[in-house]
Amino acid sequence: MSAAPPVVVPPPPVSVVGIGADGWSGLSGGAREALREAEVVIGGARQLDLLPPECAGVRVAWPSPLRPAVPRLLAEHRERRIAVLASGDPMFYGIGRALAEELGPESLRVLPHPSSVSYACARLGWPLEDTEVVTLVGRPASRLAVSLHEGRRLLALSADASTPATVAALLRSHGFGPSRMRVLEQLGREAEAYVDGVAESWAHAPGDRLNVIAIDCRASADALRLGAVPGLPDEAYEHDGQLTKRHIRAATLGALAPAPGELLWDVGGGSGSIAIEWMRTHPTCRAVSVERDPARADRIARNADRLGVPGLRVVTGPAPSSLSELSKLSELDVPDAVFIGGGLTAPGLLEACWEALRPGGRLVANTVTLESEALLAERYSAYGGELTRLAVAHAVPVGGFTGWRQAMPVTQWSVRKPSAAASLPASAPAPVPGDRT
Known about the structure:
Elements: E1 14-19, H1 29-37, E2 40-43, H2 45-48, E3 58-61, H3 70-76, E4 82-87, H4 95-103, E5 108-111, H5 116-124, E6 132-135, E7 153-157, H6 163-173, E8 180-185, E9 193-198, E10 211-216, H7 246-256, E11 263-267, H8 273-280, E12 286-291, H9 294-306, E13 313-316, H10 323-326, E14 337-340, H11 349-356, E15 362-367, H12 370-383, E16 386-390, E17 393-398, E18 401-406, E19 410-416
Parallel strand pairs: 1-4, 1-5, 2-3, 2-4, 6-7, 11-12, 11-14, 12-13, 14-15
Antiparallel strand pairs: 7-10, 8-9, 8-10, 15-19, 16-19, 17-18
């Protein structure tokens, strides 16, 4: 008779306890019990100092950088009762996300505390559902730029005491100097404090490092208006002429159809406008811009930072050779859409982009040259999709009157890759200098 298989006892769930600036006194009975019973308590040094002696577990401070250390520390103590301390609500820009990704939600017992955002909205009288939150903890302050719109209310989660001055400078540089700023410190404690002012005259000295910045967005009269949909003014970009113009850009983003969480490859980046406006459609949208000219690649990075999407990845090098390394990345890095704005006749470029594209993904290519147009017409005949001629004219003075000046028409091919896609045939035309429409 064979022996029964050994019983595998799963490790106890990890308690993830949110704690506020008020420390132990602000915790619920269940949270206190979890911390008393824990054999190991992991958290930031400041959070660990808030615990009383009755929490007798071994205290382990997170190292820096934190995220790479999560698997090691959890594995080291996994057979013991672990409690992890988090600021406020662990699942709101907190350590809870990393723990859920590492262990799975079923292995966690999350005990949240009111977040600093909830406290701030309560103090300000702002409806939480109408207030946009931007975290600047471990992220560039330029991320705030994409959220600047007249009349909007924003809460910025500060990295430290210097963040309010950085935010004030950013508001001034983007034409939002008249915006009111309130810095709320040590929310949840009896020693709560706040300072009030206007970005254009902000002169407050740095205060407490635990702060949230409330911003009432007000634009100056001469601020460049940047809307929430694709088709930003051409003046928003630094460029050398290699720029997909405003109306063509809006039509191109419409064909690319960005959705939350999706990844775009922008091949032949020029000034980066397509990738930038793709990312501006939703905070989770990602993009890679491929540009062979180093000066233009640097310009793309500056434009991305200025327009609030510093996470745009810029790859410097010619296509299609520079796409080979991108194609070796993980499943999360497979593009959902590809835009080709230049160099269409480069041998193998269209084929490499099509091969890399996720099944069901979209490919959009623009051109103004006859050679590239012929190539797109050939592919349209073989693979369908939509072939469109985009023509834009602007009114200009003609003597004492007004007439139309026609821009070069743009031919656009847009196509969706089927689930079981055939390979595109190799292109025959010899390479010619790329164009950017």
